[in-house]
C-alpha cells in the first residue's frame, strides 16, 4: 500500500509512502504489485495512463475513473446510457446559469466539476450572480448546474464488479446527510419496496456500461414522486457501505479486493435484519473524545466502534459505529447512543 | 508485535522480530508497549518474571500461564479448586504407571507435562512399559497419567476475563478431533441442554480462580454418563474460537485485546443460528492447494476462507473456513465442501 503521509493512519498499513500525483513515485510502487486500486478518485489521469502503459492492471481503469473524477463527465456519461439524472447543464458564465435558473423555477444546484467532497464544491443558487466567484477559477471547463430536486430521502446502492463481469449487490440503504456530510446509514432502506430492485438493476447497469471494476457506490435521490435519480458516483469502498464490515457476510473492503483481483465475489447478504451506521465527526472545537472509548464500550457492548486514528478537525469523519439487530428504532437508538460518547 | 521469524506470516504484522525465549529481546520489545500478551504459552517463566519486574503489564500473568504451560500443574490446580477432571497422577517410573493402570482397568493416557500440542506428547498406554522412552527424558518432573475417559463427544467453552474481573462467555461449542487435531467446530454445541450452563459456569470459575486475563479456552469431555470433565486449558485465542471471527458479534481476537487492555468486553452473542468451522490441513504430500482458492470462492460465495500464509506440512493447520446459517446439516455440508477444495 502506498500512503500519502508518513505518520498517517494509512501509513500504519503501508509498504511505501509518497505522493500519488507523482508519476515516478507511483510507477516505482506499482513495479512491486500485480494490481493497482485506489481509496479515492484523485490520482491524475496522466499517472493512471502511465500505470496502464507500464503493464500493471489498473482497476478501476482510467476510463472509468474519469467519470468519477469529473461531475460534468459523470452527467454526460449517465445521460448517454439513459440513467435517470436531474436536469443538468454545463455553464461557463452567469448568463448561462441565469438561463438555466429561469427554466427551473429560479433555484438550482451548482457544482465544481472536480475536487468536491462532503458538501464542498456544492452550492444552492437562486441568482445568476451566485456563482461568480467560482466562474472566475472554473476556466473553460465551466461549472455543472443541476435541477434542485425535491426528494423524500437519499439512498445508496453499492455493487461490486469484476473485470470478468460478475456483479454482486448489497441491499439498498437509506442515507441521512447533515450539512452535506453522511451522518447515518440504515441497511436495508426501510419500506423500499420495488425501489430496491430498481436501484440494484440501475447500479448494475452503470457498473457494466462504465466498465467499473471494484466497488461502485451510486448515491440516489428518491424524489417526491417516488422516482430514483442518480446524485453521485464513487468507485471505491464508500461511507455508505461501512455497515457491511459488521453487518454483511462479505464486507465492501473484502469485496473490493476480490473484485480488483478478479476473484469470485462473496455473498453480500446482510447478517442481521437491520444494521445502522452512525458517523463520528470531530466536534465544534475540533476535538473528539477518545477518552470516552471505554465508557462507550461499557455502555454498548453489542455496538462495534471504529476509530480511524485521524487527527480531529471540526466536522471531519474520525470514526463510525455500527449496531445490528431486529428492530430499526432500537438499533438506531443504540448506534446513536454509542456515537454520542465521542462527540466533543 | 514481536514475531519469531523473519518472513513468517506473523512477521507481516510485526513491529519487531526476535526470539521470545531471549530475555533481552523481549524486554527491549516490551519497553515500547503498555501491555504484553501472547498467542502461545511457550514464553519461559524467567522471561515472564523479568517482564513483570520491568513494570509492563503481563496478561495473562506468569502465575496463570504456569498452569497452561505444564499439564501436571494444570491438573493440580484444577483439582485444588474442585473442577471436574479425569483421575490423574504424576508418575516417575514404570512401576507407578503400572499401579495406575491396575487401578483403572488396564488402560490410561500418558502425557508429557510440557511442549505437547495437536496430539503430540499424548499416548494411550496399556502396559507399564509403554512409556519407557518418555520416562528416560522426563527427569524428576515425571509424566502425567490420566484415566482413559469414555466420552460421547468433545466440547469447548471459551470465556474472556479482564483484570478487573469482568467475564464474557461465547456459546459452548462441539469440537471434532481427528488424530488428535481439531478438525471441525460446531457453534453452538447441538443439544447441549443444561451442559451449556454448566460449562459456562465452570469456565468462568476457572478463569476467576486462576486469575486468567484474556481469552481462556476450556476443552471438555462430555462423558458417556453426560458429565463434563476438563481435558485441557489454553490461555489465548484458540482454534475452537475461530468461528467467532465470522459468526459472533465480538470475535475472540477483538475480545482478547479488549480484555488484556482492561477495556469493557464486547457482546459474545452469535450472529447466526449455526456456525461451523472446518480446519484446512496440509495434505499427505505436504501440499495444500491455494490454486483452488478461486474455485472454492466461486463454489461457496457465502463461506469465509482464511489462509494463514504458512508453509504447508502434512497435517499442519494452514487455514480454515467458516460457514453460517440456520440448519446444522446444511451449514456443515457447505463448510466441508469449501474446505475440500484445499486438500492436497
Written overview of the protein:
- Two copies of one chain form a homodimer.
- Chain A is of the alpha+beta class.
- Chain A folds into three domains: 2-68, Rossmann fold, CATH 3.40.50; 87-147, ATP-grasp fold, A domain (Dna Ligase, domain 1); 151-340, D-amino Acid Aminotransferase, Chain A, domain 1 (2-Layer Sandwich), CATH 3.30.470.
- Chain A is 30% helix and 26% strand.
- Chain A has eleven helices and 17 strands.
- In chain A, the strands form four sheets. In chain A, strands 9, 10, 11, 12, 13, 14, 15, 16 and 17 form a nine-stranded antiparallel sheet that branches.
- In chain A, strand 3, helix 2 (45-54) and strand 4 (57-58) form a beta-alpha-beta unit.
- In chain A, helix 1 (23-30) runs parallel beside helix 2 (45-54) and helix 3 (62-69) crosses helix 4.
- The two termini of chain A are 32 Å apart.
- The model of chain A has no long low-confidence stretch (mean pLDDT 94).
- At the A-B interface, helix 10 of A face helix 10 of B.
Question: Can you tag this structure with a few keywords?
Answer:
globular; 4-stranded antiparallel sheet; 17 strands; 9-stranded antiparallel sheet; 344 residues; 11 helices; Rossmann fold; homodimer; D-amino Acid Aminotransferase, Chain A, domain 1; Dna Ligase, domain 1; alpha+beta
Q: Would you kindly provide a brief summary of this structure?
A:
The structure is a homodimer of 344-residue chains. Chain A has 11 helices and 17 strands. The first copy, chain A, is α+β, with helices and mostly antiparallel strands.
Give the arrangement of secondary structure elements.
The structure is a homodimer of 344-residue chains.
Chain A: E1 2-3, E2 16-17, H1 23-30, E3 35-36, H2 45-54, E4 57-58, H3 62-69, H4 71-80, E5 88-91, H5 94-103, E6 108-111, E7 122-125, H6 132-138, E8 143-147, E9 151-161, E10 167-169, E11 173-178, E12 181-187, H7 194-209, E13 214-223, E14 228-234, H8 244-247, H9 252-260, E15 274-281, H10 293-299, E16 304-307, E17 317-325, H11 328-340
Parallel strand pairs in A: 1-2, 3-4
Antiparallel strand pairs in A: 5-8, 6-7, 6-8, 9-10, 9-11, 9-13, 11-12, 12-15, 13-14, 15-17, 16-17
Helix pairs in contact in A: 1-2, 3-4
Keywords (chains A, B): ATP-binding, Ligase, Nucleotide-binding, Purine biosynthesis
Subunit structure (chains A, B): Homodimer.
Pathway (chains A, B): Purine metabolism; IMP biosynthesis via de novo pathway; 5-amino-1-(5-phospho-D-ribosyl)imidazole-4-carboxylate from 5-amino-1-(5-phospho-D-ribosyl)imidazole (N5-CAIR route): step 1/2
Amino acid at each position: 500500500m502506498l500512503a500519502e503521509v508518513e505518520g498517517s493512519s494509512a501509513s500504519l498499513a503501508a509498504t511505501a509512502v509518497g505522493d500519488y500525483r507523482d508519476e515516478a513515485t507511483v510507477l516505482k510502487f506499482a513495479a512491486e504489485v500485480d494490481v493497482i486500486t485506489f481509496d479515492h478518485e484523485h490520482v491524475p489521469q496522466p499517472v493512471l495512463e502511465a500505470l496502464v502503459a507500464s503493464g500493471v492492471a489498473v482497476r478501476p481503469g482510467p476510463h472509468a475513473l474519469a467519470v468519477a473524477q469529473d461531475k460534468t463527465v459523470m452527467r454526460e456519461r449517465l445521460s448517454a446510457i439513459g440513467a435517470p439524472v436531474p436536469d443538468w447543464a454545463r455553464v461557463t458564465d452567469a448568463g448561462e446559469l441565469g438561463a438555466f435558473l429561469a427554466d427551473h423555477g429560479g433555484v438550482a444546484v451548482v457544482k465544481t466539476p472536480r475536487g468536491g467532497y462532503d458538501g464542498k464544491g456544492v452550492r444552492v443558487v437562486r441568482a445568476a450572480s451566485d456563482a461568480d466567484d467560482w466562474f472566475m477559477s472554473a476556466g473553460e471547463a465551466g461549472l455543472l448546474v443541476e435541477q434542485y430536486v425535491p426528494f423524500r430521502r437519499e439512498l445508496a446502492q453499492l455493487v461490486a464488479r469484476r473485470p470478468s463481469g460478475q456483479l454482486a449487490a448489497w441491499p439498498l440503504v437509506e442515507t441521512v446527510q447533515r450539512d452535506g456530510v453522511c451522518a447515518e446509514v440504515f441497511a436495508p432502506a426501510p419500506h423500499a419496496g420495488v425501489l430496491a430492485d430498481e436501484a440494484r438493476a440501475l447500479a448494475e447497469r452503470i457498473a457494466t456500461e462504465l466498465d467499473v471494476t471494484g466497488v461502485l457506490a451510486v448515491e440516489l435521490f428518491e424524489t417526491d414522486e417516488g422516482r430514483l435519480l442518480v446524485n453521485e458516483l464513487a468507485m471505491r469502498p464508500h461511507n455508505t457501505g461501512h455497515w457491511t464490515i459488521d453487518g454483511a457476510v462479505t464486507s465492501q473492503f473484502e469485496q473490493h479486493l476480490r473484485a480488483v483481483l478478479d476473484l469470485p465475489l462473496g455473498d453480500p447478504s446482510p447478517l442481521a435484519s437491520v444494521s445502522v451506521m452512525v458517523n463520528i465527526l470531530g466536534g465544534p472545537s475540533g476535538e473528539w473524545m477518545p477518552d470516552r472509548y471505554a465508557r462507550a464500550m461499557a455502555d454498548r457492548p453489542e455496538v462495534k466502534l471504529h476509530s480511524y486514528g485521524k487527527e480531529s478537525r471540526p466536522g471531519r469523519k474520525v470514526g463510525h459505529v455500527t449496531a445490528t439487530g431486529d428492530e430499526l428504532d432500537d438499533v438506531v437508538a443504540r448506534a446513536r447512543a454509542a456515537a454520542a460518547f465521542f462527540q466533543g
